[in-house]
Amino acid sequence: MKMKKISMMVGGVMMLLAVGCNGGGEDADITEEAEGTPAPGGPDDEGGGEEVEVDTEVAEGTEVIDIGFSGPLSGAGAYYGNNTLNGISMAMEEINEDGGFEVDGETYSFNLVSLDDQYLPDETGANVRRLVQEDDTPFIFVPHSGGTYATQVFNEQDEVLLGSYSSEPEITQQGNDLTWRIPPTYDNYIEPFSEYQMERFGTDLAMLPPNTEFGMDWAEALGPAWEEMGGDVIHESSVDYAQDTDFYTLVTNALADDPDVLFVGGSSEPTAQVMSQARELGFEGGFLVMDQAKLDEIDNVLGGAPDVIEGSVGVAPLVDDIHEGNEQFVSDYQEMHDADPGSEAGYHYYSVYILAEAMKAAGETEDAHAIREHLDEGLHQVDEDKRIYDVSGIDEDGGMTTELRMAVVEDGEVELVDFDH
């Protein structure tokens, strides 16, 4: 594995997210209380399927394109869902404030129609149907794999382009011509994450992923790969973040056979609580963190806890990977939300600009197939200062090809690591 490291201090350089939680102590109920950076007009913790008003003022004198969103905006996944929504709405506001964009001689603005699905795939399917039938949306964002699969059952028939924010590899292996997978697939991370943890801590792995479809798929891929690399999986269980608020029993069982490495993940705030409780129970090994959870968000949720995340490996935090393409976005986001943007916000922000350019290239705002066919062209037309990530293309299956990095925490510092894939 080819490595290049860049050091960043944990906690000290990160802005504390405005989350309503008690940190990682025994009584902290992160799953219920922490909602992260709230989306504009964010909902209370009730009522899946409810519309969430987002202030995306359209440019005067323009035609309006309704863009749909179905994601978790209440309950245990609210922090994650609201961060995705923040990125979308921020890009739309910028585009609209700039007068919109021209497609085939007509000027258009974006309007965001967002519905809460509470991370429930059946609710996602109902929401997408509603968005298509009531708002005639040509494009819908869905930021989780269960909802993506539920939508793929009918989105081709309904001729709606699905923007899936999930790293599940099978999403673009379904032969669905109207799917766009936005982040890189998680299978690229398994070998380098495992290699790092085996070399640093040892070969005994306990697995405690979330019991979501995505979490189970991650575990099913990681376990055999870990064993093929010479390791042993000594414990396998899962956690239900929608039902459980105290993870001590689950964590105690996972640590019973003294693992070297603990596999955890899901939304950042409940993952933070699992990791904190593992440390309180005496775990001194490493955390292999699935890509949905983010190390900087975990650290911030815990109020700055380098001792908890020490020895972790996960995806590279956006705020530790600043370059010309994302510097302005990060600064603007921090000013707007008083918080650091995560990859959910960054990728969704970028994708709105790609979508606008794809519509311009296609000469179409309604034909989902034409827009899909021009996504790669649209990607390459996005202005340099809007290219949040180093994405080289969108392949014929609809997957974005992104230059990959990972992050490790050593001696209180985040180290960014490039690797061959």
Automatic annotation (TrEMBL):
Q: Which Pfam families match?
A: Peripla_BP_6 (PF13458)
Which spans does this entry mark as compositional bias, Acidic residues?
A: 26-35, 43-52
Task: List the keywords (alphabetical).
Answer: Signal
InterPro entries per the UniProt record, alphabetical: BCAA_transport, Leu-bd, Peripla_BP_I
Decide whether keyword Signal is in the record: yes
Q: Does the keyword Coiled coil apply?
A: no
Boundaries of each Leucine-binding protein domain copy? 65-412
The residue range of the signal peptide is 1-23
Chain spans, region Disordered: 26-52
Q: Which domain of life is it from?
A: Bacteria
Q: Which PANTHER family match?
A: LEUCINE-SPECIFIC-BINDING PROTEIN, PERIPLASMIC BINDING PROTEIN OF ABC TRANSPORTER FOR NATURAL AMINO ACIDS
Q: Which family does it belong to?
A: Belongs to the leucine-binding protein family.
> Which protein is depicted?
Ethanolamine utilization protein EutJ
Q: Which organism is it from?
A: Salicibibacter halophilus
